Amino acid sequence: MNPTTTEPTLLSLEQLAERFATAARALWPQAEPVVQFEPTRRAEFGDVATNVAFALSRTARRKPQEIAEAIVAKVRDDVAVRATVAAFTPLAGFINLQLVPAFWQRVVDDVLREGAAYGRRAPAGERISLEFGSANPTGPLVVVQGRTLAVGDTLARTLRHAGFDVFTEWIINDAGSQVDALGRSVYARYRQLFDPAAPFPDDGYPGNYVIPVAEQLRARDGDRWMHVSEAEAIAPIARFALDALLTEQQAVAHRFRADFDLWQSEQRLHDAGAIERGIARLREAGVVFERDGAVWVRTTASGDDEDRVAIRSDGRPTYYANDIAYHYDKLQRADRVIDILGPDHHGYIGRLNALADAYGRSGTIEVVLAQQITLKRGDEILSMSKRAGTLLTLAEVIDEVGVDAARFFFVMLSTDQPLTFDLELAKKQSNDNPVYYVQYGHARIASVLRRAGESHPDALAAAQRREGLDALVEPAELALARRLSEFPATVAGVARARAPHRLPKYARDLAAEFHQFYDVCRVLGDDAAVTTGRLALCIATKTALALTLALCGVDARESMTRS
RNA sequence: GCGGUCGUAGCUCAAUUGGAUAGAGCAACAGGCUACGAACUUGUAGGUUGGGGGUUCGAGUCCCUCCGACCGCACCA
Which nucleotides in chain B lie less than 7 Å from some protein C-beta? Predict the structure, then answer.
């Protein structure tokens, strides 16, 4: 930049909004206008728009359109505004602006300068505990957990990018009665390895996945458990099985690119006295009472349907006691707790809110519900039942369609929408598969850049130095830059609304914008200045595309190979 | 029965949380490669946002009421 320049400075969108707000205040001092510019829905409405005139309409007692026109007339006097805005169009009450090319050129410059940090906000110090995945360690992970894993991990990555201090955790439900059922199931399968006629318990886990666990047990201990009573064998065998299945779950989660800061054993919380501590605090809050020999929590005080038992009359804790202990623990460590739960858990929200209330932290426990997944293979709907043993595991889904496709599809949908997941479509390497569409865009840019290294090395080097951006003036170029500029707000929106599905949507939009640009604008051409500018735009787009995919946990590929 | 979530193009889904003429992809039809990857792109067609009522400058979004789908309603986990 030339420091002696006399040109008026280019305003940012925020600065522009301030100027408009100032103008509005000057016209209607009694109103308190909030001006925010957002991308327009349609190109004919310009680049950005604000609806401030509607909000002012009531206090100003004038029609929105008149207000919009008055504000525009006033703000036009501002030199800096005129340097930033190419056209003002008050229309039907909206104030539509078309911005100068330099505004969009600066966006490209921002992306190139910030690279993988584009759209990142400085840490604001808010600590969030994010729990997701969390399955019973009594079987393999299934597709529903795949959805919570993909959604949770994507949300974690995005929240971090948005400046939150995120701590991811998984609770291992290793303290309940299902552990006993698992022990007896493995014990029975183990016996069957020696005696095929040995009985299997009616309430055991019938799934085939129990058998390999029994085989592992035999590999380790031989026939040792054939010589001890079932009563004696169950507990150690259950522990062995829990370890084996948990290890397997961790491996699959890791393979699915979802890693955790903490794998919290429920049993360990018990052993450490966390339940007593949590309930003691509830007592202090005055929401604990006893009835019929059991310890209850008055969750109805917070709007729950009915009060909940924490400690049974026989002294054993309920599942809710685990929630009490664990959430108390989490609230000690974090400012806010987010649980991503499956569709069958929405009855819990009331009792979790009650905990936040009782702990004096109302509203800090938040639940994101991910709806049901229906699996489909073409036209065939796959019914899944753990009890019937007909489940398709997450590992099998990954084997079939790959991590990229599975994650993209799981994240693509709003969490409050039930998801029909078509295995056939997800693994199709064709144009109706959105994963490949986006990855193709990235690979296409990579290809152009590779080629530029051969044919236009000087222009490529200049582009990497962020030169030549003022050559970007074509509508397709500016449209692409405009799309790039939406990334930071997209990240912030995903974080604020806990809406990770907007990332795949954005990735698709950005890729489409690039393809359109590519179709109209030849990148590697005769004009060195134009080539440089377009290469810079390509690099910026590649960066943003890769970043968006990275937040989704999907690989950005340098090339595509069709199999 | 009570409570909750949801219902948007033929199909799968969006709609920046109350903003403009409800948008994409797939499927259908008609175009575009002597140039950087055609896994691309341009266009056409497709809608009473389940039905009805209400709130207001403005409603897919908020309220009421029907219809339909799913989920929950344990001293199970």
Answer: 3-7, 12-17, 19-21, 23-27, 32, 35-42, 57-58, 70-77
CA of A87 to C1' of B35 (A): 36
- Scan residues 468-497 of chain A and list those with Cβ within 7 Å of strand B: 489, 493, 497
What integer best gives the mean pLDDT of chain A?
Answer: 91
pTM: 0.94
Give me the count of residues in chain A.
563
d(CA A318, CA A312): 7
Q: What is the pLDDT of residues A171-219, one digit of tens each?
A: 998 987 888 899 999 999 999 999 999 999 888 888 888 999 999 999 9
Nucleotide nearest to A138 (CA to C1'): B77
Instruction: Give the model's pLDDT for residue A420.
Output: 83
Q: How far apart are CA A151 and CA A174, in angstroms?
A: 24
Residue A199: exposed, middle, or buried by beta-carbon count in 10 A (0-12, 13-18, 19+)?
Answer: exposed
Delineate the domains of chain A, giving CATH numbers in brackets.
Answer: 13-99 (3.30.1360.70), 105-120+431-552 (1.10.730.10), 127-171+260-369 (3.40.50.620), 178-255 (no CATH)
